[in-house]
Write a structure and sequence with these properties.
Length: 105
């Protein structure tokens, strides 16, 4: 298990980048639940974000790639619009306890 951050450091409706053993990841908290993905867009295989910790669209209801605008469901990582529609972000297992958020993969 790898510790990612304290629970307060990933607020509702926000996203945050992490790096574990050289692998770029990001988390999103939605309706209280943390969703964790590898930071790699299935379109070109590059990181989704330009700005640090910025992985969501303006309404914070979808994950959005900053390069060509692909949008993904927060809960599943499925791409629903954009050049990689029908493909998926790579989901990673995480868990949250009284200490904070952990990568469990
Ligand atoms: S690299 Fe993400 S949409 Fe093209």
């Amino acid at each position: 298990m790898h510790f990612l951050c304290a629970s307060n450091d990933l607020a509702e409706g926000h996203s945050r980048a992490f790096s574990v053993a050289g692998i770029a990841l990001f988390g999103v908290r939605r309706q209280g639940t943390v969703h964790l993905y590898r930071n790699r867009c299935p379109h070109r295989g590059i990181p989704l974000n330009w700005a640090a910790d910025s992985f969501l669209d303006d309404s914070a209801s979808l994950i959005q790639c900053a390069h060509h605008g692909a949008q993904f469901l927060i809960e599943s990582g499925e791409c629903i619009t954009g050049p990689c529609a029908g493909e998926w972000l790579e989901a990673l297992d995480c868990r949250e306890d009284s200490q904070g958020i952990w990568l469990t993969d």
